[in-house]
Design a protein that fits this description.
Layout: H1 2-27, H2 34-95, E1 109-112, E2 115-118, H3 139-148, E3 153-154, H4 160-166, E4 169-170, H5 172-175, E5 186-187, H6 191-200, H7 204-211, E6 236-237, E7 243-244, E8 249-259, E9 262-269, E10 274-280, E11 290-291
Antiparallel strand pairs: 1-2, 3-4, 5-11, 6-7, 8-9, 9-10
């Protein structure tokens, strides 16, 4: 009996040991130690972390691409701004109206009695219809124009700087040309217009000082210019082309012919009077216009 109990006890021990080994086999992989399994799990964890890092890197790459897309979007807004620039320049061009400055060749008028006179001598080089008035610089050109009865103009001593203040000198053929020497809105004064101006200022004697400018006259013979006419001593050019009398005479054509070789003009001189005379049509004299 004792031997039988001992055998049964030993058999139970072996059964327990065998069962324990099977249970352990269910937990641990055969041939792999527990530390190896832990390392394997850590490796898997690291792999997952690496994959997560890769996903993060991919996410950053997408973010970078999004930033690139944003950067590409900015030039479009710049291009949009550049498109609006031409519109502004077009508006600026439309607002500019230089044509209004070309309507009159004069800076203004002065009213003397019932008349409105230009405050400067004429300085145009084209007729009212746009045709060019020939400039005669040399004495030969001036003489040729006068002898053929053709219009011509010049600056005193052919100096444009003098012309800025005194205007141009014209022969009477330019004054009488049917294409019109006076700009639109103006006319050339007749002998009667000059007579009316002088009478409004008290007659030939008193009128001279009131019409003369307050500077540029020789021998201290400047005027008071009370009329506002501002008559400068622009001189003239005689038939052979010689320039003379600047500083001592200001002389202006009228639109009236005296006889075939001459026409009526009016002049200021050192004597402070305004006088009427006649001169050959070939001469170069100033022109002062009057409002229509």
């Amino acid at each position: 009996m004792k031997k039988t109990k001992a055998i049964i006890t030993m058999t139970g021990v072996f059964v327990l040991l065998f069962s324990y080994g099977n249970i352990s086999g269910n937990i641990d992989h055969p041939g792999i130690s527990n530390s190896d399994q832990v390392s394997s799990k850590s490796a898997q964890t690291k792999t997952k972390s690496t994959q997560t890092g890769t996903k993060s890197a991919q996410t950053k790459t997408k973010t970078t691409q999004t930033g690139s897309n944003s950067a590409q979007t900015k030039p479009k807004s710049v291009q949009t701004k550049s498109k609006s620039s031409p519109a502004k320049s077009k508006t600026a061009k439309k607002s500019t109206k230089p044509e209004t400055e070309k309507k009159s060749e004069y800076p203004g008028t002065v009213r003397i009695g019932t008349q409105a006179w230009a405050i400067a001598n004429l300085n145009v080089s084209t007729f009212r219809n746009g045709d060019t008035i020939p400039e005669a610089k040399t004495n030969k050109e001036w003489v040729a124009a006068g002898e053929s009865g053709k219009p011509a103009w010049c600056y005193y001593n052919n100096d444009p700087a003098i012309g800025l203040l005194y205007g141009k000198l014209y022969n009477w053929f330019a004054v009488n040309d049917p294409r019109g020497l006076a700009p639109a809105g103006w006319t050339l004064p007749s002998d009667a217009d000059w007579a009316k101006l002088i009478n409004n200022l008290g007659g030939p004697g008193p009128a001279g000082g009131k019409m003369k400018s307050t500077s540029r006259w020789n021998e201290g013979s400047n005027g008071t210019n009370l009329s506002g006419f501002t008559g400068f001593p622009a001189g003239n050019r005689i038939e052979n082309g010689i320039f003379q009398n600047i500083g001592s005479i200001g002389i202006w054509w009228s639109s009236v012919e005296n006889n075939p070789p001459s026409a009526i003009d009016h002049y200021l001189s050192i004597s402070n009077s305004c006088s009427r005379s006649t001169s050959p049509k070939q001469r170069g004299e100033s022109v002062r216009c009057i409002r229509n």
